Amino acid sequence: MATDPLAGILHRLRRTACAGGEGELPDEQLLKDFVAHRSESAIAALVRRHGPMVWGVCRRVLRRYHDAEDAFQATFLVLVRRAPAIAAPELLANWLYGVAYQTARKARATAAKRTGRERPPTEGPEPVAIERETWGDLWPVLDQELSRLPDTYRSVLVLCDLEGRTRKEAARDTGLPEGTVASRLARARGMLAARLAQRGVTLSGGALVALLAKSTASARVPEAVTASTLVVTRVCAGANGTVPGAVSALADGVLKSMTTIKLKTAVALALVLGALATGATLLNHPGAAAGDERPAAVRETPPASGDRAAPPPKREKEPLTAWGPEVGGLQAGLSILPDGKRSYSYGETITLFVRVRNTSKETVRFQYIRQFLDETPPTTIGADGKEFRQAGLAVLGMHGPVNVSLKPGEEVELESRMAGGAKRAGAPGWRYELRPVGGRGRGATEEPPLFVGRGKIGFQYERVLGNSSSGGLQIAPALSKLATGKLELEVGDAPEPARLDAMLRVQADTKKGIGIRFEHPGTADQSFASDEYRYAVLDKDGVQVNGALVHLPLAIHTTHLPKTERSVTDYSDYALDPRKLKSGEEYYVVVTVRNLTALAKFKSD
Length: 605
Description:
Elements: H1 4-18, H2 27-37, H3 40-61, H4 65-82, H5 92-115, H6 139-147, H7 151-162, H8 167-174, H9 178-198, H10 205-217, H11 223-236, H12 245-284, E1 321-323, E2 330-336, E3 343-345, E4 349-358, E5 364-369, H13 370-375, E6 379-381, E7 387-388, E8 401-406, E9 411-413, E10 430-436, E11 449-452, E12 455-460, E13 487-492, E14 503-509, E15 513-519, E16 526-529, E17 533-539, E18 549-551, E19 558-561, E20 567-571, E21 574-576, E22 586-593, E23 596-603
Parallel strand pairs: 3-13, 10-11
Antiparallel strand pairs: 1-2, 2-4, 4-9, 4-10, 5-8, 6-7, 6-12, 12-13, 14-15, 15-20, 16-19, 17-22, 18-21, 22-23
Helix pairs in contact: 1-10, 2-3, 3-4, 3-5, 3-11, 4-5, 4-11, 4-12, 5-7, 5-12, 7-9, 8-9
């Protein structure tokens, strides 16, 4: 396979960096030796074995070298203090990863506060441990999602992909069958790739493995950092000396957080047990739980008072609607299409409708400007009550008012001026593509984005009537407060992109550039966007060459692979920069798109 040479190079680099071997004592035995005898050699072996992985986490999260050094030392200081309480010593690598990430985040928060109080140092540039590579902006996202994986899966991924262990070695260290390790590793990679896709980072399986391996292979711990860390661990273990104040404060903060989390877990368990006991009581008395448990948005709306509420117009199927409070004889509701769908995925399009009905006994007249809601996306709120920021929009042209007169019981759907393009101008409904918070680049559709998180999301127009960027109305004070109810929908994982059934071929030349060709059996028509490509240049040792790729100012295009063609040639939006390459040296270009990865070897002129 095309990924084998790269995988072999990266595996050798990781094994060298992590310094592991068949004859070494396992983590469990080293930890027992340290707890029982305060063995300095045991803790030194653990620092050298897991140091590259921990240092990689610290340097990916923290930009300043000395902040990363403090976080590195604090991580192993926490290990020394918590060693007797580690429940699963065979999973020490996974435990250290979690502590390192938590410690680095605390160090970053401390550094951010300090930056506002201190002047920047003037001693000159700091030592550089890890270069900011072409894919450097992926590191924060990678660690955020990796830290959220369940321990069952993250533990094998840390061992195999971050520390370079083989599946056989990981099985030996964890005490699991090799087949279980293999299945959990595959599952962990799939879960991580799916989580990254939700953040706008789409990587094939091969590219993800390469990225994980590179994150540790390039993270060689400076000898000075290792030496200072061993001094700190010896002092904590009882030797003479002092621990730096910043390192001690970091470790104390992490230990406090760990205690708090343990306490919260115990409280949550007690609450669950109490809820189960209450549930058993309710089962014995079913009448106590006979209330209406349907979501508020789909319950029948009771009349506001007496016979003032009028039924909405008859429909073949009533849309799912969240009605707001009555204001000035009117009530506004937020609806989705009548199919009643309540679950969506990133990349899907949602069409929102704003309905206004007369709940009074008198005719109500009002005006609205179509472009007001075109320019004002709905408020979106996560399950934790946090509001997600949306991008604003200015609609060009004249913004004239629309006059509406509603008799008692009548209803109108407000019209959009832009949603869905010119063909939908003047039609009801606002169309948005659901995008992950912080997502960048081109969306899956041409619709404007609506940025949301995962889980239960509330959608609401807090104001239905208002003035647009080019249109003004005299709105009655009461009607200015007209708002919809909060429509709650579930937003889940984005569907996996379709696998490409093709053979990817890549050629590279410093003068001719990068050539891409697809050879496929012609079973079905396929297509993908050019921004799905990922590129990297590696030297002969597998280390990524920073700045060797130059992005060309080309528009995003769609590559079609018709089933009638035996091969399709595509053009790359990157070129090689010979100034970053040593003349006469051999290099590799790695190109990935979805599930396909190809490697091309070339020699710099």
